[in-house]
Amino acid sequence: MTPRERVNIAMSLSKPDKVPLMCQFSIGAMMQQLKPSPALFWYDGRVFADGLVALCERFGFDGILVSLHGHGDRWREGLMEIKDIDEGKQELIYGNRREIHSWSDLPMVKFNSANISREISSVDVEREIPSHIDYIPVSQDLRFHLHKSNMFGIFSYLRGIVGGKYSIHGEITSPFDYFLDFMGYENALVSLIIDPQKCKDILERFTKGICLLASDMCDEDIDAVKISSPFAGMGFISPEHYEEFVLPYESRIIEAIKDKGKRVYIHTCGHIGDRLELMQKSGASGLECLDPEPVGNVDLKDAFNRIGDSMFIKGNIDSVNTLLYADENKARADVLKILETGKQGNGFILSTACSIAPMVCSDRILMLRELTDRFGLY
Amino acid sequence: MNQILEQISICIQKGKVDSKMAYPPEMKGMPGADELTKAALDEGFSANDILSGALIHGMGIVGDLFREKRLFVPQVLMSAMAMKAAMVHLKPFFSSGELKQKGTFIIGTVAGDLHDIGKNLTAMMIEGAGWRVIDLGTDVKTERFLEVLNENGNAVVGLSALLTTTMEQMERSVKAIREHFPENRIVVGGAPVNSEFAKRIGASLYAPNPQVAVEYINSI
Ligand code: B12
Prior knowledge:
The complex is a heterodimer. Chain A contains 15 helices and 13 strands. By secondary structure, chain A is of the alpha/beta class.
């Protein structure tokens, strides 16, 4: 059985030969493993894709999550200087901003003048919210520009290297996240209360653009799309707000992806224990993360009982408290327990809940492969 | 509690800023924290009665509900807005010295870390508990904490870190603060931090949420 088949069987709620293993790396974790030129790793699609393949093979994962796509050359426009500050640290200087690219983290962007946060009443939805999505709102002040001419080139490039061996997944971002990025986090959250209708108009428009993006992505040779939705958990909004401002929009994207015959899973980190059934209502094929205590509040067994009949589960290893900080015995025991519980459910993919934290060492990631090979057999 | 003070406290709890604000629906058209605070002053209530009897009281309840996950971030932000609207009327009493803050709280997210949603909520709650807050923002270098502590001798310091990589930075900052200001209290918070870590690096307290920090600094 190939790794790709293994992942696909699990995503169809069946049991393959053994539990598939597929973690997503934080950018910092990839950098720590690969030690590339930090700026090129971020901006150059080939360097990034080669890195993804190298990591997948190094750690024996069954699939590759492609968290960035649409690479191009626009980052060179207006670039005044690249400074090597330290080993593994570069500064890119532009007229309006400075970017620090380093081995430990995502790029950090500092604009010369601070972005002014928007009043909801002043937003002109038709004019200001793009109907075609041309960026990923990655982090504070950090947008990844999507080049139309090379929107999904990375997928064919990856297939060219790995053939049909691995499962390849694309990633798109929730409309709720685009909304928060556009308005500024706090402003956006307050606006849900002050002007809910306007928020819905904005979300509606983002949703249209994201549906198109997701649908086009599904024309590539990928098996699934992950919807990144980090702000949809209990750390931010109530279940009522989830139902009102997240669920209807993510459901439409999920429908568009499923219409193209691909699988789709939602990634929401942190505490989501109170809303598993609501997330199930979205129609998604699977759920990712399911952070355990203390980072989140999901018990894997309970999650399988509640939603496992219609959704696969990918995750549940605490990357910080288990992989990074625990001693060897605890780390192994934690992973074994998750593996045992996961095997009882129908569709299970072993993975870190959220991404592998930057400083997790290779041995700990290799341990996942070893334990899955020994104890993950069905 | 007197009726108008109770009404102000309810406005804070419910995030009712002023009469123009349609939220919460059940209080539509009614006066909010803004109008009621002004009315209470006009009725002869002392600024101190309003501050402790209504505003801090209301914000304390918000803090408890947030800790119990019965209120979420948008609602807390609305309460902070209501508090801010009320405080505008009390500002002259701080300038004249009639009202005194309980102390100064310096807060910042440590160097290398840009997460500030939790830090901002903490700042709002501590302000709502009657403290003067100096918010240094995100990506705050150790030297900056020391500099501001130099100017504010008795301040309590709060550090936030959300990344495992920046927890090391938190450790460096806390150790430097300890070295230069051994008497000052240091509170740390943020998702990956815990009591054990706080103890190891020499912080006075790990606060899993703002309310725990409020209770602690009020008890100093
Ligand atoms: C929102 C978010 C972001 C936003 C931040 C926006 C902003 N302006 O803050 C953005 C998109 C920018 C972002 C970026 C990154 N993030 Co981030 N992010 C989150 C997320 C989803 C939520 C954090 C949050 O705001 N929670 C809500 C608030 C209310 O809770 P809180 O911060 O915990 O604060 C509460 C308490 O902790 C406490 N508290 C906090 N600080 C303090 C301080 C004091 C003094 C006190 C008393 C109390 C206190 O009070 C608050 C209220 O109760 C978490 C996941 C999670 N579930 O925590 C990841 C998470 C923190 N991010 C993570 C990562 C890895 C990153 C990135 C490196 C990106 C990446 N994935 O590659 C970058 C780093 C950028 C940088 N250098 O800082 C990881 C950290 C892993 C680790 N432990 O190392 C997390 C845990 C996700 C994950 N599992 O991968 N992120």
